[in-house]
Amino acid sequence: MLKKVHFGPSYLPYLLVAPQILITVVFFIWPAGHALYQSLLIQDAFGLSTEFVWFENFEVLFEDDHYFDTFKRTVFFSVLVAGLSMGFSLILAAMADRVVKGAMAYRTLLIWPYAVAPVVAGALWVFMLDPTLGILTYGLSAMGYDWNHKLNGSEAMTLVVVAAAWKQVAYNFLFFLAAMQSIPKSLIEAAAIDGAGPVRRFWSIIFPLISPTTFFLLVVNIVYAFFDTFGIIHAITQGGPAKATEILVYKVYNDGFVGLDLGGSAAQSVILMAIVIGLTVVQFRYVEKKVEYQ
Amino acid sequence: MIENRPAVTIISHCMLILGVAIIAFPIWITFVAATHDAVRMVQIPLPLLPGGHFFENLNQALNKGISGGANQGVVMMLFNSLVMAMMIAVGKIAISLLSAFAIVYFRFPFRMGFFWMIFITLMLPVEVRIIPTFEVVANLNMLNTYWGLSIPLIASATATFMFRQTFLTIPDELLEAARIDGAGPMRFFFDILLPMSRTNIAALFVILFIYGWNQYLWPLLVTTDQSMFTIVMAIKQMLEAAEQAPEWNIIMMTTLLAMLPPVLVVIFMQKLFVKGLTETEK
């Protein structure tokens, strides 16, 4: 942690950490503390009076069926996004690991969606699936399926899941491929000599060996689906139709900024913080055995 | 090559090409839409092959915007995005380098306390402290400024950890040699540490530039003035306007412009990008 050889005591290190600490305190710790405090208050609609109510905001939330539904929906959404995107990239990474020629060319062609903003990803997909003009809508109607995500909740959910998963494929592919390429070739060769075919080798050797990466990616994808997909949902469905795509982060924003229920929104923020802290702890505690990247 | 199975190799290539096609299809459609005129873009089915109106659309998107909008092009928004992304990337790198230097090379009271304070930022993404952070920025009169757009985002635990890791791999002998030669701490920092961390700084810059450029929720909150909007925010407003009068050719041109800078960064600095992505997650 600290170098064996280091500089003697002076005021300098305080000056060096000052900018970072100042920003952390002003924009991170103070607001988070304020959110904690605000979650214990109820303010009237005009901001004229504030009452300290202990945990009433939380009680209201836990008794609220809408909140519970949103919670379940968020978990469902995250599992779908993580599953779809990880499954797709696992297959592609296994293929790219197999082909000797061109693996890096495929990597270039697959990783750039990482750089696309969530909102932009949403715009691309909403354009292709526009109920009247979309090119995929046209294709679906040719097959006899009538797509309209503005009216149908599960179609809206499908749209946001696909857009969110599409963007995340790049990241997962990169990590899966790096993990697979770090497996010693001798292991695979030994299995091949023993007569194991490509599929058998994948399930018996490669898949178990990359499990630390898989677990790490699962955590990262869930964090992504919980927090970074706000842009997609805000831009293309606004949580609708009839709250079918409203996830926790969107609800915090909507209740706080649009609905002006500050106490309730702060209580939701506190619950979200607890979730992030939990996920971070999981990530640091259990994802220590890292694979080697080149 | 483990064994010679041409059939399996061919199947692998086919599946990879299919995968690339699925991933690239939305971009192709976007590009095609950006090359047609407004008349063609309301006829079903929409085109699958490019038309000849690319530069007209580019001109309109850059200088005029969609006709239902405020009649403002996106040049200013591209500039705002660039300033924000640069300020976030440079700011994060600068303050993280300094704090990692202090934590690794100095022994001082509260050293670990500061370290844990920085660590906490990892657990507090903007999304969970939206309203109080907005209030702080509003009270500091930073709404509608570049400072308000960037400063609240530049604390970085991951960057600090990465530089800490880098500094720990630098041999102690270098510091001893520098001290014998009479170099003070800051001289050592600028003349030895910075040059030795060059690749890491570059790799991190790539990742942070993309992160900064793609910010959405934060600019949405702190900017109300049209002249401070970022390009990523503009997409959302155009999608709203599309409910009444869909000018998809212009919207898709703007979308292309919004994603081009970060995508180019990833493609042309792929090595640094991959390094940055894998290092910051350690």
Can you walk through the features of this model?
The complex is a heterodimer of chains A (294) and B (282). Chain A is mainly alpha-helical and 294 residues long. Chain A has 13 helices and 2 strands; from the N terminus they run H-E-E-H-H-H-H-H-H-H-H-H-H-H-H. Chain A has helices at residues 12-38, 56-63, 65-98, 103-111, 118-128, 135-142, 153-181, 185-193, 198-209, 211-228, 230-236, 248-258, 262-286, and strands at residues 41-43, 50-52. Chain A starts with 11 loop residues before the first helix and ends in an 8-residue tail after the last helix. The longest helix of chain A has 34 residues, at 65-98. With 282 residues, chain B is mainly α. Chain B has 14 helices and no strands. The model of chain B has no long low-confidence stretch (mean pLDDT 83). Chains A and B meet through helix 1, helix 3, helix 4, helix 5 and helix 7 of A and helix 1, helix 3, helix 4, helix 5 and helix 7 of B.
Features:
heterodimer; A: 294 residues; MetI-like fold; 71% helix; globular; disordered C terminus; B: 282 residues; mainly alpha; 14 helices
Give the topology, please:
The complex is a heterodimer of chains A (294) and B (282).
Chain A: H1 12-38, E1 41-43, E2 50-52, H2 56-63, H3 65-98, H4 103-111, H5 118-128, H6 135-142, H7 153-181, H8 185-193, H9 198-209, H10 211-228, H11 230-236, H12 248-258, H13 262-286
Antiparallel strand pairs in A: 1-2
Helix pairs in contact in A: 1-13, 2-13, 3-7, 3-10, 5-7, 5-11, 7-10, 8-9, 10-13, 12-13
Chain B: H1 6-33, H2 54-63, H3 75-105, H4 111-120, H5 130-139, H6 146-150, H7 157-168, H8 172-180, H9 185-196, H10 198-213, H11 217-222, H12 231-241, H13 248-268, H14 270-280
Helix pairs in contact in B: 1-13, 2-13, 3-7, 3-10, 10-13, 10-14, 12-13
Net shape of chain B: globular
CATH architecture classification name of chain A: Orthogonal Bundle
Task: Give the H and E element order of chain B.
Answer: HHHHHHHHHHHHHH
Number of separate domains of chain B? 1
* Average pLDDT figure of chain B: 83
CATH class of chain B: Mainly Alpha
By helix and strand content of chain B, what is the structural category? mainly alpha
Our Rg estimate of chain B from Cα atoms comes to 24 Å
Number of domains of chain A: 1
Give the strand line-up of the largest sheet of chain A: 1-2
**What's the helical proportion of residues of chain B?**
55-70%
